[in-house]
Amino acid sequence: MSPAKVIPWRAVTVAPVILVSGPQEFFAERAIKTVKDVLRKKQENIEIVEIDAGDYTEGAIFDLASAGLFGDSKLVVINGVEHCSDPLITDGIEYLANPSDEAVVIFRHNSKSVRGKKLLEALRASELVVEATCLDVTKDFEKISFVESEFSAKGRKIQKAAARALVDIFSKDFEELSAACSQLQLDDAGEITPEIVEKYFGGRLETTNFKVADSAFAGRTSESILLLRHALDQGIEPVQVVSAFAGKLRDMGMIIGNPRASAASLKIDNWKFEKARTALSGWNEDTLAAGFHLIAETDFAVKGGAKDPHYALEKLVTFFATKGRR
């Protein structure tokens, strides 16, 4: 027998039995909702039954998956399989041998527990099963990919800098991040830009001087200017922003032209060394020297040497975001 078909949660399809696995609850809820919506379109009066695996009693799955009084189809959702009772393990395996033609059964397991392992193994070994994986997303690039997928799924476009700005605002809550994407999709602009994100959610953007510097050195001009403005709005002192840029530039200066440079020889952390080495792409000794000169100018400007220190900071950010091409 062929194993279960494994697909990402966003691509979930209807099957006699569906395993929704993985620790990301928001994705799991979305996957289950997708199945519900598809089945409701096929049969408006479909009966949906949801139970908790910890409350399962012997034989219940066979009753729950049987046709309704008027022959209506059913969707049975069994949540919390990581807390399942022994009868569910036994009955679930038996059910796979002869599933109901009148029902779709969803098993939801968060993969954080080994409880129900025997049932999971049986589900994953069955060709009747589709497994929708809901893996945890913790890295920024994964969250940005999620945002881009939210838009592409609706036939809309969002600039990467705008997606990054959304992640900066809502990175701790996928439900809010998804809701923000839905709200932006109501905007009649052809493509969502950082400026549109700022218009809707600018007041909620949290940033630091280090985020401004990281964004600029990564070459993201629009995003870094947006982050700078919000950093200043949140009370971060201009001199702190200059300091963040100076620190990154010092690390780069110690590496450029030194093929033997290493984290150990420079007495800095490995992650800091790798970050500086990556940032050096596109720079040379002349542009770095110009950068040090501009740092000194900007430091003077923000300490009272210029009428408009904010303009001096934007000039600084643009210089580094464009790798010295002023």
Description:
- The protein has 326 residues and is an alpha/beta fold.
- The chain folds into 3 domains: 5-133, P-loop containing nucleotide triphosphate hydrolases (Rossmann fold, 3-Layer(aba) Sandwich), CATH 3.40.50; 138-205, Helicase, Ruva Protein, domain 3, CATH 1.10.8.60; 207-326, Zinc Finger, Delta Prime, domain 3, CATH 1.20.272.
- It contains 15 helices and 8 strands.
- It has helices at 25-42, 60-64, 86-97, 117-124, 140-152, 160-170, 174-184, 194-201, 209-217, 221-233, 238-255, 263-266, 270-279, 285-305, 309-321, and strands at 5-8, 17-21, 47-52, 74-79, 103-109, 129-133, 157-158, 191-192.
- The strands form 2 sheets. It has a 6-stranded parallel beta sheet with strand order 1-6-2-5-4-3, sandwiched between helices.
- Helix 3 (86-97) links the parallel strand 4 (74-79) and strand 5 (103-109).
- Helix 5 crosses helix 6 and helix 6 (160-170) runs parallel beside helix 8 (194-201).
- The chain is elongated, with a radius of gyration of 27 Å.
How would you summarize the topology of this molecule?
Elements: E1 5-8, E2 17-21, H1 25-42, E3 47-52, H2 60-64, E4 74-79, H3 86-97, E5 103-109, H4 117-124, E6 129-133, H5 140-152, E7 157-158, H6 160-170, H7 174-184, E8 191-192, H8 194-201, H9 209-217, H10 221-233, H11 238-255, H12 263-266, H13 270-279, H14 285-305, H15 309-321
Parallel strand pairs: 1-6, 2-5, 2-6, 3-4, 4-5, 7-8
How is the biggest beta sheet arranged?
6 strands, parallel
CATH class of the largest domain, please?
Alpha Beta
Choose one word for the global shape: elongated
The helix content is 40-55%
- In CATH terms, the superfamily of the largest domain is P-loop containing nucleotide triphosphate hydrolases
| Spatial ordering of strands, largest sheet | 1-6-2-5-4-3
| Low-pLDDT segments | none
Question: What is the CA–CA distance across the termini?
Answer: 64 Å
Structural class by sheet pairing and helices:
alpha/beta
